[in-house]
Amino acid sequence: MPEEHSLNIYFAGELFTHKDLAGNALLAEAISDLSEQRYCSVLPQNLSRPDAQPHQLRDQNILNLLESDLALFCFDGTELEAGLVAEYLFAKFADIPSVIVRTDFRFGAAQREEDFPWNPMVCFYPRTEVEIIDAMSVYQNIFKEFPWTDAADMLIEKRSSDVAKTMVRVVAQAVVDAFDRVLETPSRMDAEQAEAVYNWLAMMPGFQLEPERAQSVMAQALARKRSRGLIS
Questions:
Q1: Could you tell me the sign of the dihedral formed by the alpha carbons of 146, 22, 5, 205, in that order?
Q2: Sign of CA dihedral 76, 81, 85, 88
Q3: Is 196 a domain residue?
Q4: Which residues of the chain have pLDDT under 50?
Q5: Which among 76, 91, 81, 175 is positioned nearest to 125, based on CA atoms?
Q6: Do the domain assignments include residue 41?
Q7: Closest CA to 74 of 112, 45, 51
Q8: Which of 179, 230, 181, 187 is nearest to 3 (CA)?
Q9: What are phi and psi of 9, to 5 degrees?
Q10: pLDDT score of 7
Q11: E strand or H helix at 144
């Protein structure tokens, strides 16, 4: 594992509804708390600007991802969201240690590594840990610990939100453990390869930034990762 720093996580997942926004925030805070601030998430929902043009938003997300030390991908839903898949592949191009978490109980839990409930084109990449958690079962198991009361009392006592927060911490602990494991895996690139890859990543997406500025951002990102022992 690299020398211990506070590492920033690019937090990739849906951010289209109030449930997405609230769930992302709660999970990010729980990860930070349970890791004693070793892992601090960058939430794209906190970065987006409603008046930004699509190209600007895309560039902003890609650059924030490539500058991050780690990445977390929430692979929930019956189909993976297209932007999420693109972000995951960018992370793998950049050799970013990543964790995939799925809390959606639909399709059941994977029985073997090759049975992940998503398209195989986003499977089997190195420096990636996968956590599949049945959030509904976790919630129900926690809920059983409380004595039953009627619906009105449950709302007054904030019973459901307490259970939900405990469930989020269960998921967060699994994510923290997965990041601990993935940080044990070495970089796939040597120093020369890393220079070439990050130079290419500055040009390949067609950023609106001036090429020299994009090159500078990628050089700084690579230097940061090297200083933390994440890339050779």
A1: positive
A2: negative
A3: no
A4: 1, 111
A5: 91
A6: yes
A7: 45
A8: 230
A9: -110, 130
A10: 97
A11: none
Residue 87 lies in a domain: yes
Residue numbers of the domain that contains 68: 7-189
Within a domain: 151: yes
pTM of the model: 0.92
Q: How far apart are CA 13 and CA 91, in angstroms?
A: 14
Distance of CA 198 to the CA centre of its chain: 21
CB 202 within 8 A of CB 217: yes
Q: How many domains does the chain have?
A: 1
Q: Give the pLDDT of residue 229.
A: 95
Q: In the Cβ-directed half-sphere of 114, how many Cα atoms lie within 13 Å?
A: 0
CATH code assigned at 135: 3.40.50.450
The CA-based angle 220-209-203, given to 5 degrees, is: 70
Residues paired with 41 in a beta bridge:
9
pLDDT, position 107: 75
Pseudo-torsion of CA 139, 142, 143, 144, nearest 10°? 130
Report the interhelical angle of 82-93 vs 54-67 (nearest 10°).
Answer: 40
Please report how the helices 18-34 and 159-182 are oriented relative to each other, as an axis angle in degrees rounded to 10: 60
| pLDDT of amino acid 145 | 82
Q: Report the run of H or E that residue 99 belongs to, with start and end.
A: strand 98-102
Q: Please write the tens of the pLDDT for every residue from 107-144.
A: 755 545 557 889 899 999 999 999 999 999 999 999 88
